[in-house]
Amino acid sequence: MIFFPAIDLKDGKCVRLIKGDLNKSTIFDTDPVKRAQSFLEAGSKWIHVVDLNGAFEGKPINRDSVEKIVKNVDINIQLGGGIRDIDTIDFWINLGIRRIVLGTVALKNSKIVELACKKHPNKIAVSIDTRNGMVAVEGWEEQSQIKALDLVKNYENIGLSAIIYTDINRDGVLLGPAIKETINFAKNINIPVIVSGGVSSKEDLIKIKEYENVGISGVISGRAIYDHRLDLKECNALMEKNVKN
Predict the structure, then answer these.
(1) If you placed Cys at 46, which of 76, 174, 190, 193 could pair as Cys (CB 3.0 to 4.6 Å)?
(2) Is 231 labeled as catalytic in the residue annotation?
(3) DSSP 3-state of 222
C-alpha cells in the first residue's frame, strides 16, 4: 500500500481547502519544490499533486510549479486538476508525470478516458469525488445525480491504474475518512482504490491497512501532515508493512 502525501497548488503555493471550497484555503508553504523534496527525504516514493486553480478553471494553471517539481525532485508524481483533453494528458506524461488523475472529464467524456488508457497504459487514474454518495465535478462546484459506483462500472475494463475515492464532506476537516463507504465501494469494483479525504491519524491508517486485501492500494493525506498530526516517515513505514491475516 502506498501513502501519498498531498500538495494542493493554488496560485503557486501549497494550500489545503475545507470541503473543497476555494475560498476557504490555508497556505502551508510558499515553495512546492522544497515541500516535495521534504516528502522524498522522509521516504515517500510518490506524491499526489493537484492543480486547484486548474480544477476550477478547466485547464492547467499551476503549470510552472508542477514543472519545477518534476525537474528538481526525483519522485513519482500523481497529478490531477484541470486535465480534460488528450493533448494535456500527453504533455504531462511526456514531461515525466507518472500518473494522470482525471475527474470532471470522466463524467462528461468517457471516450477521452478510454483513449488515454490506450495511449498510456497503467498511467491513468480516475478521481471519484462524492458528496452524499453522488459524484461532484468542476472543482466540486457542480453536483451530479450520478452515483459513484454507477460511474466507475463504465470504466472497469479499460485499464485504469486506480480510482481515487474522496468524500468531500471529510476533506480538509480532520474528521477521519469515510472508511465504511470506501470499503463497500472497493469491494464492488475490480480497480484498485486509493482512499482520500479526512485521513488524519495513525489510527485511520491502521484501519485502512486492514482492508488492503479487498482492493485498497493507497491513502492520500495533506492537512494532517502539514499540521504535524501525522509523521510522514511513520506513515510510509506503516503502509509498507505486510498485511497480517
Answers:
(1) 76
(2) no
(3) coil
